[in-house]
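Today's session is about reading a structure prediction critically. Students often jump straight to the picture, but the first step is always the sequence itself: look for stretches that repeat, for charged clusters, for runs of hydrophobic residues. Only then move on to the predicted structure, which in these notes is written as discrete structure tokens rather than atom positions. Here is the chain we will use throughout the hour.
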Amino acid sequence: MSLQQPAKWNHSRRNLSVGDVVTVKDDTLRRNCWQLARASKTYPSEDGYIHSVLVDLGDATLPTDGKKKGPLRQLDHPVNKLVLLLPSDADAV
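Below is the predicted structure for this chain, in token form.
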């Protein structure tokens, strides 16, 4: 039995919100190959925390006219597999 508290539960963190720019962790890729995404919907749980987020994945291919070809790919992802890069403008201080 240990007398130390687990490090990850010592302080609360900011919930992800709609519009946040994140990277999607992928254990099979190196960090510089992780995909960029933007949070488009959050799923709050009964405890008030966000545990899952719907993200719009970025597309590395862009035609010469600079416009996207089709609809964005979306993915439901747990927040422990996302890394916040840029908070949304609504949360800017």
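Discussion point for the tutorial: The mean pLDDT is 84.
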